[in-house]
Design goal:
seven-stranded mixed β-sheet, globular, Aspartate Aminotransferase, domain 1, binds pyridoxal-5'-phosphate, alpha/beta, 678 residues, Aspartate Aminotransferase, domain 2
């Protein structure tokens, strides 16, 4: 339904540190070569919490990449040619409509026209248009809007002439008008400066070159095609080919989000089924598919809670309690929703400190809006007092918002509704298999209990949502509608029993890793000796090797790093999911155990504290092949530390990145390194 889509945003230097989302900046690696990395790492919302200026986490990275590749393929001249053609065709359309005696919005124009049709003319034209399979934009009862793009052809413009001529072919066509109207005069504001001057926009204008360019970029990516990506709470599950298939069908991809409902019955059916399934999975009464990511679901859910309190005459309830272990988007979303965040502490076992929760709930009794809580907790355990926690909040007039990022440990076994939560978002791009490598797109639907259904998000073009909706949280009525097909496929293929089995297996794999590694890396938090679907490996006992060193070294072993130093600094959080086989789990554990031996050698002083396998990781192919190799370890130890790597080796493309240099250069225009300050 034309979504998901990416938007771009630019600012002057002075505001760069307030920008939302993730920013790719530039640094240099251990070879002095340019290396891109996420900039402002320490400023992003995970760290800033309630001081964040944005709650964006999962974004539209894939779509942004598609748009950039479009610019690479066409280059500056190609883009200009496309734009001129659109402008020319729009001019021709305007001239033809004027010839038919219609009132057309005056020049300057680019791709869009407004057409005045007199008393109730819009409906008359729409009817004819629909018979020709055209949808036009209704501005009001007597005005229609048309936008052309590079896919519009002259035959379609001729059909538009016919539509606006009471369905009769007029006595002129595009070819008759091309001369006079097709060459718009130069306009004020026409751009004369150069643009897209970087080499990447000049090089790949043939499909073969483009194919190789994209493949080269892909080969630098340590993706799910090479290893597990065991990111705690940000599950990277298998995105099965069968699940992905329907996204590319034109029946899903080429429908406008505002298309009349009678034209989108298939989509409606899919939405209804998916909502019904997600209600069953969450134990809730209603679902909104509108939010585009978990963070947006949080925002929508909190607005629903606020609307509920307002409806009871309790508009003063603005306090949002959030445990210190919560994901950074939680406090950021609460602030975006106009709430005041009050932190609740955790005990030494990583659980919410119940006495602190009780006293804060009481202290803010008259202004308590809600608690935001993650279950299983971000510490990777099923918090045993979860129901008591919900009861405490309810008894003080508050609502319970559950962060559903960890639903992979609940599906089929328990549910937010069963536990006592009132609202929950799901990350369909985590638990329900939409790929989100590189940062998105996502879908973050919210589920709500019966008393909140009336407040579910609405939309001002398409009628949906509750009876007293909070308004829209996305431009498109069903958010990133086309990728809902992926989650639909996953649930349909798995079935109830399959989903429950997947949850059991996900919990089993996490416990397997936790147990197999416990003598080398103890798991920080457990409950009755067990974890939920993820385990936090504690590396803090090591003094001369950091968790970051291990994350980098894992790349030499062919593994993507687990979640680093979150939610606890100096740890790695591992979530294998049900997608990984025992062979892959063992390959990972073997790598971690081998790295443990390398760490021990550093700790004991057996090897140099600075110049060693860990501090120099990752090792690139050109470093290994360099004739002046002078490291105190062998090339084989660096690049092929375990035998399996001889069979398949992923070569890291950049060496160790200079973080400090990167912090000073948050903006990358991809010019030469001499342009950056060191
Ligand atoms: C991923 C995640 C979020 C945010 O969801 P997005 O879709 O990235 O916006 C919130 N909480 C937890 C625990 C998460 O893992």
């Amino acid at each position: 339904m034309a979504a998901p889509h990416a938007a771009f945003f630019a600012t002057r230097h002075e505001f760069k540190r307030q920008m939302p989302g993730r920013i790719v900046g530039v640094s240099k690696d251990s070879r002095g070569r340019p290396a891109l990395r996420l900039a402002l790492g320490t400023r992003e919302q995970h760290i800033r919490r309630e001081k964040a200026t944005s709650n964006i986490c999962t974004a539209q990275a894939l779509l942004a990449n598609m748009a950039s590749l479009y610019a690479c393929y066409h280059g500056p001249a190609g883009l200009k040619q496309i734009a001129l053609r659109i402008r020319s065709l729009t001019g021709i359309l305007a001239a033809g409509l004027q010839r038919l005696g219609l009132e057309v919005s005056p020049a300057p124009r680019f791709d869009t026209l407004k057409i005045g049709l007199g008393e109730d003319g819009a409906q008359r034209i729409l009817k004819i248009a629909e018979a020709h399979q055209f949808n036009l934009r209704v501005i009001d009862a007597h005005t229609l809007g048309i936008s052309l793009d590079e896919t519009t052809n002259p035959a379609e413009v001729n059909t538009l002439f016919r539509i606006f001529n009471a369905d009769k072919i007029p006595d002129f066509a595009v070819s008759d008008l091309a001369g006079e109207a097709g060459v718009p005069a130069a306009q004020d504001g026409d751009r004369t400066s150069t643009y897209l001057q970087h080499a990447v926009f000049q090089q790949n204008h043939s499909e073969t070159d483009m194919l190789r360019y994209i493949k080269r970029l892909e080969s630098r990516d340590l993706s799910l095609t090479a290893s597990m990506i065991p990111l705690g709470s940000c599950t990277m599950k298998l995105n099965a080919a069968a699940e992905m298939f329907p996204v590319s069908w034109p029946e899903f991809g080429r429908i406008h989000p505002f298309a009349p409902l009678r034209q989108t019955r298939g989509y409606q059916h899919l939405f209804e089924q998916l909502e019904q399934w997600l209600c069953e999975i969450t134990g809730f009464a209603g679902i909104s598919l509108q939010p585009n990511a978990g963070s947006q679901g949080e925002y929508a859910g909190l607005l629903v809670i606020r609307a509920y309190h307002q409806s009871l005459g309790q508009a003063q309830r603005h306090i949002c309690l959030i445990p210190t272990s919560a994901h950074g988007t939680n406090p950021a979303s609460a602030v975006m929703a106009g709430m005041t965040v009050v932190a609740v502490g955790c005990d030494t076992n990583g659980n919410i400190d119940l006495s602190d929760l009780r006293s804060k709930a009481l202290m803010y009794e008259s202004s308590l809006s809600c608690l935001m809580i993650t279950y299983p907790s971000t510490h990777g355990v099923f918090e045993e007092t979860i129901r008591e926690i919900c009861d405490i909040i309810h008894s003080h007039g508050g609502q319970v918002y559950m962060d559903g990022a960890n639903m992979n440990a609940q599906v089929g076994l328990t549910s937010p509704g069963h536990i006592g939560a009132d609202v929950c978002h799901l990350n369909l791009h985590k638990t329900f298999c939409i790929p989100h490598g590189g940062g998105g797109p996502g879908v973050g639907p919210i589920g709500v209990a019966g008393h909140l259904v009336e407040f579910l998000p609405g939309h001002n073009v398409i009628n949906l949502g509750g009876e007293n909706p909070i308004g829209a949280v996305s431009a498109a009525p069903w958010g990133s509608a086309s990728i809902l097909t992926i989650s639909w496929m996953y649930i349909a293929l798995m079935g109830g029993e399959g989903l429950t089995e997947a949850t059991r297996y996900a919990i089993l794999t996490a416990n397997y890793v936790s147990k197999r590694l416990e003598k080398h890396f103890p798991t920080l938090y457990r409950s009755r000796g067990l974890v939920a679907h993820e385990c936090i490996l504690d590396l803090r006992a090591f003094k001369n090797v950091t968790a970051e060193d291990v994350a980098k070294r894992l790349m030499d072993y062919g593994f993507h790093a687990p979640t680093l130093s979150w939610p606890v600094a100096g740890t790695l959080m591992v979530e294998p999911t049900e997608s990984e086989s025992k062979t892959e789990l063992d390959r990972f554990c073997d790598a971690m155990i081998a790295i443990h031996a390398e760490m021990t050698a550093v700790e004991s002083g057996a090897v140099d504290a600075k110049n060693n396998l860990l501090k120099n990781a990752p090792h690139t192919a050109d470093q290994i092949a360099n004739d002046s190799w002078n490291r105190p370890y062998t090339r084989e130890q660096a690049a092929f530390p375990v035998p399996g790597l001889h069979d398949y080796k992923f070569w890291p493309h950049v060496g160790r990145i200079d973080n400090v240099f990167g912090d000073r250069n948050p903006v990358c225009s991809c010019a030469g390194m001499e342009n950056y300050s060191g």
